[in-house]
Design a protein that fits this description.
The protein is an alpha/beta fold. 50% of the residues lie in helices and 14% in strands. Strands 1-2-3-4-5-6-7-8 form an eight-stranded parallel barrel, surrounded by nine helices. Helix 7 packs across helix 8, helix 18 packs across helix 28 and helix 35 runs parallel beside helix 38. The termini are far apart.
Length: 948
């Protein structure tokens, strides 16, 4: 007779430790049931990983599942696993019915990530029980300290449980008692125990592997031949002895009055299941852990190779109760040898949890890869060409992140990922988009459309303005909806230009401020509220204003008092620079008629790609973040962003995110946005390039230069979006990447400690103006025909030593002479941000880049104070700053304040410059005189002469 099938005559059931879709579908499982008497199937993450990752048989099912709608990787795997388990359970159902529920089970494991989480284990087990919806399912729960209460709870709910990762007799007793207690609770609650079954999976071969290693070490050290012989005699014996003694405990536990009371109601004893029965030591018989553990009312779950081996040459006998006293002697001798079986089994549980978690990482990585392949261009493609050194560092860090479960910790909002400060309070952006009330936004958008507004203006700064600006610049005006504009300046000319651009009678204003206390949006609101009141009447003005702010802010109070048409609340757990996919970005988008349903749909695909269930090697946000962070640590801290024409404004948003998040504590990344792509020769080895474009755009000359950079050894990241409708994916990718980079650099990416310093100085100056009617006097270090120059004494002394004399050109030449390799030059202009001025700054920065071979930034104040200003003050001391100010040709009053827009801007510029010099930065301020256009021309000429 077939030895495998004959095991049933000895009271032992054989289960198969293997499962795959084709194996069931082609009838192979049914064949084993018929020929070998197989009575059950077990699965685990390792089994599914081999089935899914090592073949293409799951490609079509994954494709079919995704056709019905995208889903997170864990959900996608669960969908596949549930189908497989259901199919196997259906094949085994006749066995279950014939044996009246005593056998015929299929096991499905809860996520190994939950091994130390009682509540999570209970919730997932309940969910899987309902999802599979088969009586002959067993949910696998690990025998960890946290798993034990879950086992009792789940049995008490009538769910059949396979307890896994059992190594110790002591823990086995706890498991059996948990099962009995669960049954007692079920009965007490009126439940029927006849439908509940359980096995305790007692692992075998892993024990011998661990014990034999320690025995070999002691044998090698022993000098006495008799001791060597005694120790050698224990090899390959401990696991079987341990299992035999566990079986003796089983017999005690499932007898006596307490058990008989349950048995009378139809309860089934929890059988011992021998797991890990494939032989790992080639010196031992390949059927050792089957032949030596045959006994009544037990299960042996075997891998296919062991099943084949036992069928071929297995020997049958009732071995489980043989030589029990000898088994005790074996464990006594082991203890005498100084080897603690308790310590070994405790370690094996930890290793088992880790091995299953590692397998789950591989499994989810395989599913994530197949998901990405099916979705294709629906997820923006990302290619990292990092060079050998950085690529190796990223690979090492990727494995460290995987092994330490950092992406799961990040999603659990665990501040230990960063600095253990308050990072956990600022992670609302991770999942906020999934909670967005799309119907409410759509209703609001239709109300806006119904009022026939010609324009909509966002009044905000930093995170409240830069995201909406990307949307305004990227999406064309939609018919029937207002044209979206953004104002983020206190420059009088810029405020006045916006007023001239729009029709005040037909414009909607969105006042956007998280705290409600930010100076710029408040004064902009005051100005335009007064102007709209004049245009349509004070009683109607409030109807033209929307507020986006955190609950309870001062702006909410003002908006309520002034009768704003709508107040949208932000999430206090989302910082400004991470808020574009929250109401701070979605309200302006809805106002402009952008299809939010589509935008959110596309963006959620990236959220899923960056999810907690996507291991670091398949997680695009983590990969980009590790590359950025490690490059920065290695000295390539100038993150240079190129954005194609259709998404040209994206870099302005990204530079705020990166600079304000990472630039602090003397560390961080310096984003470089707006530099046109140059020849290889103009770049130093401090660059990290990111190139973004849409699928429909091509630029052969640009690509040729990028290729040249890569060939020269510069790290280059290429990201290709399917269309502008997918811009939300890039917002999210960069948010995740920046958070990860912050962890690599070792800073809190959610605070901005140095932004407040400039605000304090600005408030001091405006307070002085309110008292005296003038800003405090300041003395230039030199006056020329074109400009007055300002800096502190230390900078002035250094510049004079470098040759600065009585001309603007000499001071600029001395200033640029302080630029070293690895530095960057930032032009900070507190003037109107318009096309002509942008071109002027661009020409100057490119001349500096090409001559000095350093990174350059061209920024407009006060806008950059809420963006890159943090990195300039708090980041690496590698910046050389040229601030440009000018007298305003025509100032503009702020209603209800002495300080005008021009005064506020001047105070902001002086406050900013004061902090730069206090921090020891290399900084020079040029205050242009007279006509601004002529002054800028003179400055440009002086820069060109200084460089030449």
């Amino acid at each position: 007779m077939n030895p495998v099938k004959a095991l049933e005559n000895h009271g032992q059931a054989v289960w198969l430790d293997f499962l795959a879709r084709g194996f069931v579908a082609k009838g192979d499982l049914k064949k084993l049931i018929d020929t070998d008497g197989v009575k059950g199937v077990t699965s685990n993450p390792s089994i599914f990983e081999k089935a899914i990752g090592s073949s293409d048989e799951y490609d079509a099912p994954i494709g079919r599942a995704l056709k019905k709608g995208d889903r997170p990787v864990a959900d996608l795997f669960e969908h596949l696993a549930v189908e497989d388990i259901q199919h196997a359970a259906d094949v085994l159902r006749p066995v279950y019915d014939e044996l009246k529920g005593h056998d015929g089970f299929v096991s499905l494991e809860v996520s190994p990530y939950l091994a130390m989480d009682t509540k999570g284990t209970i919730a997932e087990a309940e969910h899987l029980w309902k999802a599979v919806h088969r009586k002959n399912l067993m949910v696998k729960v690990p025998a960890t300290p946290e798993g034990l209460p879950a086992i009792e709870h789940l049995i008490g709910e009538g769910i059949s449980i396979n307890i896994t990762l059992l190594f110790s007799q002591k823990v086995y007793i706890q498991v059996a008692k948990a099962y009995i207690a669960g049954l007692e609770k079920l009965v007490a609650d009126g439940g029927d125990p006849t439908h509940v079954a359980s096995v305790a999976s007692f692992f075998v071969s892993r024990i011998d592997t661990a014990v034999d290693k320690q025995l070999d070490e002691r044998i090698a050290r022993a000098n006495d031949p008799h001791e060597k012989e005694r120790l050698a005699a224990l090899k390959g014996k401990v696991a079987i002895a341990n299992a035999k003694l566990a079986y003796q405990e089983y017999k005690k536990l499932f007898s006596g009055a307490r058990w008989e009371k349950l048995a009378a109601k139809g309860a089934k004893p929890q059988r011992l299941l021998w797991a890990s029965t494939g032989t790992k030591n080639k010196d031992y018989s390949d059927v050792l852990y089957v032949e030596e553990l045959i006994g009544a009312n037990t299960v042996n779950t075997v891998p296919p190779a062991t099943l084949d081996a036992f069928r071929d040459h297995g020997k049958l006998r009732d071995s489980l109760e043989e030589n029990v006293d000898e088994a005790r002697d074996v464990l006594t001798e082991l203890d005498k040898s100084g080897i603690s079986l308790d310590a070994i089994t405790e370690e094996l549980v930890k290793d088992g949890v880790k091995l299953f978690a590692d397998a789950a990482d591989k499994l989810y990585g395989a599913v994530a890869h197949k998901r990405a392949t099916v979705l294709g261009a629906a997820i923006g493609a990302q290619k990292l060409a990092l060079g050998a050194s950085l690529e190796k560092a990223v690979e090492k860090s990727t494995e460290e992140w995987r092994a330490s479960a950092k992406i799961r910790k990040l999603w659990r909002k665990d501040k230990s990922v960063w600095t253990n400060d308050d990072e956990n309070k600022w992670l609302g952006w991770l999942d906020s988009l999934a909670k967005a009330d799309i119907a409410d936004y759509e209703d609001y958008a239709q109300r806006v459309k119904g009022q026939n507004f010609s324009d909509a203006v966002v009044l905000g700064m930093g995170g409240s303005s830069l995201g909406p600006e990307v949307l305004a610049e990227t999406f064309p005006k939609k018919s029937g909806f207002p044209k979206l504009h953004v104002l983020d300046s206190t420059d009088p000319a810029q405020v006045r230009a916006m007023e001239k651009t729009v029709d005040l009678k037909k414009t909607l204003f969105i006042v956007s401020s998280k705290s409600g206390g930010t100076t710029e949006p408040n004064v902009m609101k005051d100005y335009f509220f007064a102007q709209v009141s004049k245009a349509i009447g004070a009683d109607k003005a409030g109807h033209r204003f929307i507020a986006v702010t955190d609950p309870g802010s001062s702006l909410e109070k003002v908006a309520t008092k002034q009768g704003f048409a709508r107040i949208f609340h932000g999430d206090p757990a989302i910082g400004g620079r991470y808020s574009v996919l929250s109401p701070f970005g979605l309200v302006p988008a809805a106002t402009a008629g952008i299809d939010l349903r589509s935008l959110i749909h596309h963006t959620l695909a990236m959220v899923r790609s960056c999810g907690a269930d996507v291991p670091p090697h398949e997680n695009p946000g983590v990969q980009l973040g590790l590359a950025m962070g490690l490059a920065g640590v290695e000295g390539r801290d100038k993150v240079t962003i190129f954005s194609s024409r259709k998404i040209a404004d994206f870099g302005a948003w990204a530079e705020q995110l990166i600079a304000e998040s990472t630039g602090k504590d003397g560390k961080g990344l310096v984003p470089v946005n707006g530099e046109t792509l140059g020849d290889v020769s103009v770049y130093g080895d401090d660059r990290f390039f990111i190139d973004l474009r849409t699928e429909s755009e091509s630029d052969a000359a640009h690509d040729e230069k990028l290729d040249a950079l890569e060939q020269a050894g510069h790290p280059v990241v290429r990201i290709v979006m399917k269309s502008i409708e997918h811009i939300g994916q890039e917002f999210y990718r960069f948010e995740m990447a920046t958070a990860v980079a912050g962890a690599v650099i070792g800073i809190n990416p959610f605070d901005q400690p140095d932004v407040e310093a400039a605000k304090v100085k600005t408030r001091e100056l405006t307070a002085a103006f309110e008292k005296s009617g003038a800003l405090p006097k300041e003395s230039p270090v030199i006056t020329t025909d074109e400009a007055d120059l300002y800096t502190d004494e230390i900078n002035a002394a250094d510049l004079r030593k470098a040759g600065a004399d009585g001309t603007l050109e000499s001071w600029l030449k001395a200033h640029f002479s302080r630029v070293d390799a690895g530095d960057y030059v930032a032009l900070l202009a507190y003037i109107e941000r318009n096309a002509a001025h942008i071109d002027t700054l661009q020409a100057a920065r490119l001349a500096i880049r090409d001559e000095c071979h350093v990174a350059t930034c061209a920024e407009f104040g006060p806008r950059f104070l809420h963006s890159t200003g943090q990195a300039y003050k708090g980041g690496p001391d590698s910046g050389v700053f040229l601030q440009v100010t000018a007298d305003d040709a025509k100032d503009l009053p702020v209603p209800g304040q002495k300080a005008s827009f021009g005064v506020i801007k001047a105070a902001q510029a002086r406050g900013d410059f004061g902090v730069l010099t206090e921090r020891g930065r290399r900084a020079l301020r040029v205050h242009l005189k007279g006509d601004l256009a002529q002054g800028l021309k003179a400055l440009d000429d002086a820069i060109q002469q200084a460089l030449n």
